Amino acid sequence: MSNADVVLDLKGLLCPIPVVKVSQAIKSLPVGGVIEATATDPGVLADIPAWTRTTGHELISIERQEKLINFKVRKVK
Amino acid sequence: MLLETNKLSMVVFSGDMDKVMAAYIIATGAAAAGMEVTMFFTFWGLKAIQNGKTTGSSLFGKMLGVMNRGGIDRIGPSRLNMGGMGRWMFKKMMKAHNVSPLAELQQMAADLGVKMIACQMSMDVMEIPRETLIPAVADVAGVATFIEDAAQSKVTLFV
Questions:
Q1: Are B134 and B46 spatial neighbours (Cβ–Cβ below 8 Å)?
Q2: Does the distance separating the beta carbons of B28 and A20 come in below 8 Å?
Q3: B59 Cα to chain A: minimum distance (Å)
C-alpha cells in the first residue's frame, strides 16, 4: 500500500484517541520513520496538523476522501 | 526560581461526569503532545479518583459518603442528570458514538504518565481515606505542591 513503517486504522475513533494512538505509535519508530493512518473523525483534520506543530514531527500529507481522512506523519526527533 | 517547562497543571474541582471527561481529554491530549501533566483532584473532584468504597467516620461523614458516593462510573453530568437517568443516557450515547468510556480515558491517562494527585485537606474534611482512592493516584498533597507545579507550567487549568 505504501512505504509507511506503521499503518494505523483509526476509523470510528473520536477525540482524543486518534492523537493518543499516533503519539504512542511514533514512540516505537526510529527517527525518519513514517506512520500512515486512516481516520473518520473530521476533528482529525485540525488536530493532527496541530499535534505535529506541537511535537515537531513532520506532517507529510493529510487529505479527505469522502468519509475517510488519510494522513502521513514522519518522526523528526 | 524554577524554569517554565513543557508542563500542564490542572485542578479538577468538579466531580461532574462531563467536566471530568473534559479534564481527562485535555490531560491525555497534552500527554500525547509530549507534555508532562499533573492533575490535582480536590473537593468534588475526588469522586473521580475514588474506588467506589463507602467513606466517612463521623455521622455527617458517613451521610456524605452515601449521598456523594465516589467512583468514576458513578458520577453524573452537571446538567440533566435527573436522578441518574442522565448519566445512563449519556453513557448510551457515548457508546453509540464510539467515545471512550470515562474509566477507559482515566486508565489511558495513567498509562500515558499523567500524574494524579489528591488533595489532603479535602480528604480530611470529607473523611475520604487513602484506601478508597484508585491505585493510579500517585500522591496526596496540598496547595504548595500544586503551586510549585503550576509555577513551572506553560498551561494551567481549573475544571
A1: no
A2: yes
A3: 42
Query: How many domains does chain A divide into?
Result: 1
The total number of structural domains in chain B stands at 1
Residue type, B121: M
- Listed in order, strand segments (DSSP E) in chain B are 5-12, 36-41, 115-119, 137-141, 153-158
User: Which residues of chain A from 3 to 42 reach within 8 Å of chain B, CB to CB?
Assistant: 12-17, 19-20, 22-24
What distance in Å separates residue B131's CA from the closest CA in chain A? 30
Q: Which stretch of DSSP H or E encloses residue A73?
A: strand A68-74
- Cβ contacts (< 8 Å) between A22 and chain B: which residues? 32
Cα angle B68, B131, B28; round to 5 = 75
Residue of B nearest to A52 (CA): B33
A62 within a domain of the structure (yes/no): yes
A1 located within any domain:
no
Cross-chain CB nearest to A16 (options B28, B34, B97): B28
CA pair distance A39, A43, nearest whole angstrom: 10
B79-120 confidence digits (pLDDT tens):
998 988 999 999 999 999 888 899 999 999 999 999 999 999
Interface membership of B99 toward A (CB under 8 Å): yes
Give the 3-state secondary structure of residue A13: coil
In this predicted model, what pLDDT tens digit does every residue of B42-72 receive, in sequence order? 999 999 999 999 999 999 999 999 998 999 9
Question: The CATH number of the domain where B120 resides is what?
Answer: 3.40.1260.10
